């Protein structure tokens, strides 16, 4: 569900990267050149497998898989191989609401409380005024990632009902409708509205009203609905600098925000329908007005340097990012979940659509899509893999340096005995996340969440009343500071070691229970 463009890669490939850079092309890329772009991106970013689809002028002109679905099985990726598309699901959720708008069952600007009377945010005004449109365009005032710990990492016991209820306890970071801040949980609210209005399971509505009419026959609205399909990727990520298969996300609670599995052939039908103003074949699946609404800017996103595309404006529509590139309107979205990244990009004015799906967490999908786009826009002299790889490596280096600095301090503290270590132990409660416990095991502090079974691990002394939490699951690379309140040790706050990395802990305040 996340959509970062800052994932990293080892520095040792820099020399290889520039010594093997391909010649850039000044014309529309050929199939051989696209093969080369995909293979190079896969090699440089250590992607086990990926698939690329290209639409031009109403047709799927390129559709191909590369590499393997899984490092375990070594089975090849094809154009029919299923990948998790993560946050690219959001556009389907928005379109599903559009179907209900077309049927007159709701309106974009209906209040959320009309359909979910128990819905409540911390801000009373936002509670009363939040609309269905607001759910979809990231302007609620909640910080990016606020409350995601209720469904991420996988295996929490929160239900969608729990998540909707607990939103009332999360303080906003910004004024209502004042700023773009990416949000997953309000898409879960949107999915609940679809279920209540249609009187269908959300996943059934997506499949019966969108996937099946589009003849996306291999796709499913949830991993649980497609896991019997053997032509499906495994999730991969680097663990201790080694690329390996990791445990995929299987929960259904956030299907409205990131549950769909699909392939480049099926997704080309989705993109073609949208580029054709909602029409698929001889059927108008979405009204032209609704299709237009999905791509209409709703929330402004500030842009800096316009770059080689001379971008002046950017915004979020309903499930889509919208911006100008070389004088054209580009519609795109990215998606990242555990062990997979996707990008879908369209420039309708030139009839172009690009789909890239990968089975590891890297910037490869973005670099490949951008390089292909450059060719169609006549942009020369770029090497997107080099740029994204260098950016990733720089970020990774800074992250590694910060972590090394922290753990150096931890190691220095190891020989110092903590006086009265038991004073930190006990049960602590946060209003929306529930209880955690700090217990003493082998004269060391152990942190465990009651409702998130993977949120557990040892606490290592760092500074006075501050510890470093190391997740027990080595696949979760999110070292975290645990800060006990001064003096009485009756409160706990959490903070990511790397600014802007890991999870959003800002709204958490654990208070010690009697």
TrEMBL record:
<dbReference type="InterPro" id="IPR021860">
    <property type="entry name" value="Peptidase_S12_Pab87-rel_C"/>
</dbReference>
<dbReference type="Pfam" id="PF11954">
    <property type="entry name" value="DUF3471"/>
</dbReference>
<dbReference type="InterPro" id="IPR001466">
    <property type="entry name" value="Beta-lactam-related"/>
</dbReference>
<dbReference type="InterPro" id="IPR050491">
    <property type="entry name" value="AmpC-like"/>
</dbReference>
<feature type="domain" description="Peptidase S12 Pab87-related C-terminal">
    <location>
        <begin position="420"/>
        <end position="495"/>
    </location>
</feature>
<keyword id="KW-0732">Signal</keyword>
<dbReference type="InterPro" id="IPR012338">
    <property type="entry name" value="Beta-lactam/transpept-like"/>
</dbReference>
<feature type="signal peptide">
    <location>
        <begin position="1"/>
        <end position="26"/>
    </location>
</feature>
<feature type="domain" description="Beta-lactamase-related">
    <location>
        <begin position="36"/>
        <end position="368"/>
    </location>
</feature>
<dbReference type="Pfam" id="PF00144">
    <property type="entry name" value="Beta-lactamase"/>
</dbReference>
<protein>
    <submittedName>
        <fullName>CubicO group peptidase (Beta-lactamase class C family)</fullName>
    </submittedName>
</protein>
């Amino acid at each position: 569900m996340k959509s970062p463009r800052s994932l990293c890669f080892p520095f040792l490939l820099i020399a290889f990267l520039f010594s093997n850079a391909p010649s850039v092309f000044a014309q529309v890329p050929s199939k051989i050149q696209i093969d080369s772009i995909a293979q190079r991106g896969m090699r440089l970013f250590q992607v086990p497998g990926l698939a690329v689809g290209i639409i031009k002028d109403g047709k799927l002109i390129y559709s191909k898989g590369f590499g393997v679905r899984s490092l375990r099985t070594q089975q090849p990726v094809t154009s029919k191989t299923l990948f998790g598309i993560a946050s690219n699901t959001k556009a389907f959720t928005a379109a599903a609401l559009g179907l209900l708008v077309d049927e007159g069952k709701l309106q974009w600007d209906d209040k959320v409380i009309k359909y979910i009377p128990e819905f409540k945010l911390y801000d009373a005004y936002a509670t009363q005024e939040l609309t269905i449109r607001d759910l979809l365009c990231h302007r609620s005032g909640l910080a990016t990632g606020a409350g995601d710990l209720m469904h991420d990492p996988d295996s929490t016991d929160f239900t969608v009902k729990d998540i909707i209820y607990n939103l009332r306890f999360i303080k906003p970071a910004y004024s209502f409708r004042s700023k773009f801040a990416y949000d997953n949980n309000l898409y879960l609210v949107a999915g609940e509205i679809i279920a209540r209005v249609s009187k269908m399971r959300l996943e059934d509505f997506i499949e019966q009203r969108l996937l099946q009419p589009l003849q996306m026959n291999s796709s499913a609205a949830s991993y649980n609905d497609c896991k019997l399909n053997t032509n499906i990727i495994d999730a991969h990520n680097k663990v201790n600098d080694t690329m390996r298969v990791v445990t995929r996300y299987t929960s259904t609670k956030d299907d409205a925000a990131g549950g769909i599995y699909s392939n480049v052939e099926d997704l080309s039908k989705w993109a073609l329908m949208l580029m054709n103003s909602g029409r698929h074949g001889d059927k108008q699946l979405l009204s032209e007005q609704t299709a237009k609404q999905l791509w209409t800017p709703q929330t402004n996103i500030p842009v800096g340097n316009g770059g080689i595309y001379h971008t002046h404006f950017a915004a979020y529509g309903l499930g889509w990012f919208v911006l100008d590139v070389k004088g054209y309107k580009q519609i795109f979205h990215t998606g990242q979940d555990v062990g997979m990244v996707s990008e879908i990009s369209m420039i309708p004015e030139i009839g172009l659509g690009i789909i890239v799906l990968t089975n590891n967490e890297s910037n490869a999908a973005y670099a490949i899509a951008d390089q292909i786009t450059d060719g169609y826009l006549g942009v020369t002299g770029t090497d997107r893999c080099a740029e994204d790889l260098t950016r990733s490596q720089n970020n990774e280096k800074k992250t590694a340096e910060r972590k090394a600095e922290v753990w150096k301090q931890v190691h220095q503290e190891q020989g110092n005995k903590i006086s009265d270590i038991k004073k930190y132990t006990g049960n602590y409660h946060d209003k929306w996340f529930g209880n955690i416990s700090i217990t003493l095991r082998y004269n060391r502090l152990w942190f465990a969440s009651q409702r998130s079974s993977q949120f557990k691990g040892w606490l290592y002394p760092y500074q006075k009343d501050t510890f470093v939490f190391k997740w027990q699951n080595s696949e979760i690379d999110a070292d975290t500071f645990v800060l006990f309140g001064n003096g009485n040790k009756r409160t706990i706050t959490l903070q990511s070691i790397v600014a802007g990395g890991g999870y959003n802990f800002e709204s958490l305040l654990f208070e010690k229970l009697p």
